[in-house]
Amino acid sequence: MLIVRLLFKNAFRHKFRAFLTILSITIAILAFVMLRTVIGAWYAGVEASSASRLVSRNAVSIIFPLPLSYKDRIRQVEGVRLVSYGNWFGGIYIDEKNFFANFAVEPGSYLELYPEYVLSPREREAFLKDRKAFAAGRKLAAKYGWKIGDMVTLRGTIYPGNWDFVLRAIYRGKTDSVDETQFFFHWDYLNETMKKTAPSRADEVGFYMIGVDHPDLSSTVTTTIDRTFKNSWAETLTETEKAFQQGFIAMSGAIITAIEIVSFVVIFIMLAVVANTMAMTTRERIGEYAILKTLGFGGWAIGGLIAGESVIISLCGCIAGIALAFPAAAGFKKALGMYFPIFSVETPSLVMAFIASLAVGILAAIVPIRRAIAIRIADGLRRIG
Amino acid sequence: MEEKPIIVHAEHVKKSYRRGQHIIPVLEDITLCIREGRFLALMGPSGSGKSTLLNLIAGIDRVDSGAIRVDGIDITALSETELAVWRATHVGFIFQFYNLIPVLTAYENIELPLHLMRLTAKERQLHVETALQVVNLSDRMDHYPAQLSGGEQQRVAIARALITDPAILVADEPTGDLDRRSAEDVLNLMARLNEESGKTIIMVTHDPRAAQRAQILLHLEKGVLTDADCQAPF
Amino acid sequence: MFALFPYSLRNLWTRRLTTVLTASGMALVVFVFAAILMLARGLEETLIQTGSTDNVIVIRKGSVSEVQSGIERGQAAIVESLPYIASGRDGKSLIVKELLVLVGLPKRDTGKISHVSIRGTQGHALLLRPQIRLIAGRLPRPGSFEMLAGSSIARRFKGGGLREELYCGMRHWQIVGIFDAGNSGFDSEIWGDADQVMQAFRRPVYSSVTFKLREVKDLDIVRRTIEEDPRLSLEAKRETLYYAEQSEMMAKFLRILGISLTVIFSLGAMIGAMITMYASVATRTAEIGTLRALGFGRRYILTAFLMESLLLGLVGGCAGLFFASFMQLLTISTINFQTFSELAFRFTLTADIALKALFFSLFMGFIGGFLPAVRASRMKIIDALRAA
Q: Which residues touch C302 (CB under 8 Å, ≥6 apart)?
């Protein structure tokens, strides 16, 4: 343990410089962890989705509807436990800045299909009873300060006009990974209104949500459903919820790749700073290394000293950065929770940060070690005087 | 012999340093008068304050009390900025470790003080080349300090010190880091400057050989200058 | 005044490794900064170039984009009858009634599906959009299953090339021509006959109506006439404005993301510069004392060291910008959050972005070097000299 104490003492010999270097690393690691968490959050939808739920939509184009009459035929397919349906509403609350997912669903079957949305029995009943009711996730309601009984108006974009809703239920997620920012209301409310204002658009469903008896049956059920409707008025494309989410993510693949690249750029910045500090420190102490050589210490010992010091600085910064990442993520979640409903620091990010810091510590020491080993004793000693 | 005017007049100068809680007195009560054209050596044991006195006369440190007049100007009354300007034109420095700027050539080092004056590039060139000839280093003018020997570096420093034709030259252990041969060369140069050009030189030194070359030898002991007052100026 | 510039430059050159490392840190930050600004600009330029200032686009009131909009034939006919529409050389009105459909097509390189816009339009659509040129093949015959593909689609998607076939809407469509729409959004679209598209996809309504104004000044009258007509529930916009709005959300997202990332990264790089400059000051303490003794004032010392760190910033900034400029060779293809459809755009470097990047790097150099420079200037001469 003497070695470790020695390394620490060496690392902090020049306290101010060590502090600045560690500060720089802390910031870099913090940025790194946050970026990886953002990437994780992007994929969170996939994680939260279930393999025993299927999504069925118009095969031709996602913006085209399916007829309501498909409901019964889907239910008759072997392996199907439950069928629900809904339409993406895309309404605007006050102005475009307030973005959240809002859609019309068949309320009873939808809640049954999503047991991870937990409602109190009283609120569930109130929601099911009132056709103009809507249910909101806990985070969403908190953000806008909605209370049970409040009336909320959405401006329709796909379905024009101003639509009034009454908050009858607030759901919370069974686990941390459940999205608590959704807004859903009665499909019948939408449909009845359409029947009156634009009858040609009535009885049309945006997507079917299908629950299967067992996840293993997913692939057979998807094939059967699509085969049933092939060559009909509206062909279906059915896939597991997971595959559906992944499809969306893949479309913004370029952006995600860019963020990944940027997260590695920050590691290189860190490397530049630590390498610089080690280069300067080694240059100043070159006389000492010459003395060590006269005493008989070989290249490995000297290399170890320098690398050890570098790694200690790196790891100190890493630990500080990781420690700060948690409160930072909490703050981030508060500010941008709407765009990233699930946002938490995951262990893989921390492991990557640790490995990166270790690597930086070692790489930063390479050039200084070479210089220290190469110095001739006489030259080194002369530099002390 | 016609008496030259008094060029340095220090009166009742006191100086002490603060180290944490303690106040350490360095110069007790110094009064000193030096005539123009003198070559004066200040000697004394370590900690006697000789470098401090030199620094005060050169205007790079401030007295606690008392006054110092150089070439008629009371430097203790000058502001920081005025003092900087004064130093540029009235004092030439020669340090023990030469203190040349490593990234500048010999020529550029000598030219350095001239940038504080309003001269054209041609005028500067003239001055520098003359100074190089005086110290006998015209052939090394494009070399960097790292490429010069100790003696040569000190000669460059002397050229730099002379370039603005200052009132006084102050030297702090000028031969302290030189071998015998180079020390000889440097001291010869200084003696020549004093005899031929009438430069006033105040030198602090440990080296008895260096002290020998000076006209006047003063001893500083625990902050007190023995045998010095302005009734009988040096 | 003594030439500070060569003095600072030479000092940086003497400690080359340190200079390179510090400048590299700053270069990386500038690279990210510039790249993101270039991306946002590229996105905007793509969408701004889409559209002409004398065209008006009409969509259903309240829909944010063509995709959500629906205009019935009767309503379209009413718009067509307005007197403000310009006529082409053949005397026919320069107006198109278009249906936009999003279709999932597989990409050539990854095979992954992305949503592509298929625009059912009429033959004279090209007359309304002079920035588009046919570069291969020919125009589709009216009423046929032939289609034109934008060059970006032809490159990137299976079945989108000349003489290739697409299968969608339960029909086979042949690509008979490729058009180049420059950097605009149209380059990521496939165009076909509106009536055939409407039939194939069973959509009896149009998404939008676009026409060229006879006189540009008529825009306001036209807008009011359309929006106040009780038979229609439509809104009218200048085409360029419509497309500019489409990019707003994404461009804003990119800029905010970019700037916050860069600020955080720059802290790391600035600290790196600070470490370097403090070390520089410490190493040259005797030199500082000498210069002060010779008569150079405090302000001179401050300026000399600041100049050094500014130079570091400048070198880093130029390097970062240099590498960022190579990003212009890349094309990004992704989904536009607002319209949900595929969009391809490039990194665009403008003089404005270059200046911002350089200014930012100088700023980093300044902040990093300021405190050390102050320390250098505040040293007492005798303390500095004693360190020799």
A: C373, C374, C376, C377
Mutate to test the interface with A, among C188, C263, C275, C346 (most CBs of A within 10 A): C275
Query: Strand pairing partners for C133?
Result: C180
User: Do residue A228 and residue A83 come from a single domain?
Assistant: yes
Q: Does B112 touch chain C (CB under 8 A)?
A: yes
Closest Cα to residue A89, out of A29, A20, A160, A41? A160
pLDDT at residue A385, as a whole number? 45
What was the pLDDT predicted at C345? 79
The total number of structural domains in chain A stands at: 2
Question: In which band, very low, low, confident or very high, does the pLDDT at C323 lie, cut at 50, 70 and 90?
Answer: very high
Q: Does some domain include residue A76?
A: yes
The mean pLDDT of A137-161, rounded to a whole number, is 89
SS3 C210: strand
Query: Cα–Cα distance between C299 and C378 in angstroms, integer?
Result: 9
Domain ranges for chain C, please list them.
Answer: 4-48+247-386, 55-212
Establish if A248 belongs to a structural domain.
Answer: no
**Domain extents in chain B:** 37-60+88-217
- Using CA coordinates, name the residue in chain A closest to C33: A262
pLDDT in tens, B49-64: 888 999 999 999 999 9
- Report chain B residues whose CB lies below 8 A from the CB of C291: 101, 112
Q: Which secondary-structure segment (H or E) carries A250?
A: helix A241-251
Looking at the domain assignment, is residue A50 inside a domain? no
Smallest CA-to-CA distance from C126 within C189, C68, C70, C72 is with C189
Domain B37-60+88-217 CATH class label: alpha beta
Of C358, C383, C294, C278, which is closest to residue C26 (Cα–Cα)?
C358
| Average pLDDT of span B80-108 | 91
Alpha-carbon span A29 to B172, nearest angstrom: 51
Q: Lowest-pLDDT range, A37-41, A377-381, B20-24, C6-10?
A: A377-381
Cβ within 8 Å, pair C168-A254: no
What are residue C110's phi and psi, to 5 degrees? -100, -15
Residues A283 and A181 in one domain: no
* Each residue's pLDDT tens digit, C268-299: 899 999 999 999 998 899 999 999 999 999 99
Per-residue model confidence as pLDDT tens digits over A54-112: 999 887 777 778 889 899 999 888 888 899 999 988 888 887 777 788 889 999 999 99
| Residue finishing a domain among A180, A200, A234 | A234
- The per-residue DSSP string of C225-247 comes to HHHH-TT--EEEEEHHHHHHHHH
Q: What is the mean pLDDT of residues C373-382?
A: 92
Specify whether the CB–CB gap between A86 and A110 falls below 8 A: yes
A-chain residues within 8 Å CB-CB of C18? 276, 279-280
CA A218 to chain CA centroid, Å, is: 26
Say whether the C–A interface has 3 or more Cβ pairs within 8 Å: yes
Provide ipTM, 2 decimals.
Answer: 0.89
Q: Last residue of a domain, which of A207, A234, A261?
A: A234
A326 is in which domain, residue-wise? 2-44+253-382
Q: Is residue A143 part of a domain?
A: yes
Residue of B nearest to C3 (CA): B115
Q: Do B112 and C2 touch (CB under 8 A)?
A: yes
Which backbone phi and psi does C211 adopt, to 5 degrees? -145, 165
| Same domain, yes or no: A80 and A39 | no
Per-residue pLDDT, C98: 92
CA dihedral A218, A220, A221, A227 (to 10 degrees): 140
Q: Nearest to residue C293, comparing CAs of A169, B66, B160?
A: B160
Q: How far apart are CA A113 and CA A102, in angstroms?
A: 17
Please name the helix (run of DSSP H) or strand (run of DSSP E) that holds residue C19, with its range, or none: helix C16-49
